[in-house]
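Researcher: Structure prediction, please.
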Amino acid sequence: MKKNHLLEGSVMKSIIMISVPIILANTLQTVYQLIDTFWVGRLGEKAVAAVSLGFPILFFLISLAMGFSMAGSILVAQYNGKGDRGNVSLITGQTFSIVLILSLVVSAIGYGSSHFLLSYLTDDPVVLEQAVSYLQISFLAIPGMFLYTIFQSALRGVGEVKFPMFLVFGTVILNFFLDPIFMFGWKSIPALGVSGVAWATLITEYLSAVIGMGVLLAGGYGVKLRLSALRIRKVWFQKIVKLGIPSSLEHSSRSFGMFLMTFLVSTFGTTIVAAYGIGTRILSFVIIPAIGFSIATSTLVGNNLGARQHDRAEKIVKTGMEVGFLFLSMVGLLLFLSAHQIASFFVPGELELVAHATFFIRIMALTFGCIGIQMVVIGTVKAAGQTTSSMFLAMFHTFSLFVLAYLLSTIFHLREWGIWIAYPSANLLALVLALSFYRKKEWLKKSLV
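Model: Predicted structure follows.
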């Protein structure tokens, strides 16, 4: 009989089997965004500005879908661990209906208010026109984007992570060819400029959603979506909303924190903004494996809590923290040693800028292992259904980073050096808080099933 790697066998092997495809899938999602940036860059500065204005709004709204789909994934994992396939199917259907309704509301409101929202961000009529067109089409893509997120989260809940990775890979390849076709035109397809990028995204998002829904309806990967499960039940609606709202706030708080930090950094001049941009771009790639370990831990812990295998759940968390700390510490060491070369690659010849970016990367790199542990703990408390606790942990890191950066740079007059120092300081504070949540073991006593 085939082993269930979620509930038995080597814990290390289980973490690797789940985290590696997730890390690759998230890396591909980053590549997807870079491809869009690459092609939009061919259209000029105003086109890049138009897309840049729309992206934070979309990122904030995507956080809503991520929160509710995470709620479904938590419930799916615990019921899957219990062996209750009926409720796995029911939860998937309930989450599908709730997120579909949410996506249609968001899409309609966003489409109608795009001009109003963007008019506060730019007074350049050319940029505004392009940004509105891009954002409106992107809002039309929201339902497809949200539904794919449901499919991905449902499969992650039962430990199936390879198929979503292959699907993302396919959309990245397709997007690479669709972007220039719709932007510059081809045969009977007119040149749509910036709008073409949004149309390419819309097509790939809906294609992913259709394939994902087809897989769920077929039930070939351990989750069977039944039409009878789509009618919203009050008790499940309440459970999903109770879990989903804190998770949504957690994700959206991160995007809000990015906005606050960018605003603070912008007061210190162009050179510091550029150095900050280089450092945070490196950080965004480092976060990818941390998220992978967090999701893998959440999936495994959720299944084992559902199966009442508390000893194995605790072993998973300990192993996850060790793996996260060691892997990200090694990444940090490599970045520490190569920081100058990395900064010089982005801006060759800019000596002052390279010096600031090098220091920023090096001082962050020393505490990357802390991020690994913190993200594993966040995944652990989520798996137990404690999404309010995971929200608090994430918000504490965001809040402490901004407060420390403001105090050190402005009140203590350290200027940009205060911002650089704030990052490792906030990571250490967040680590202490995360470990205190872990050691209380409240997550080990919780189960939603």
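Model: The chain has a mean pLDDT of 87.
Researcher: Thanks, that helps.
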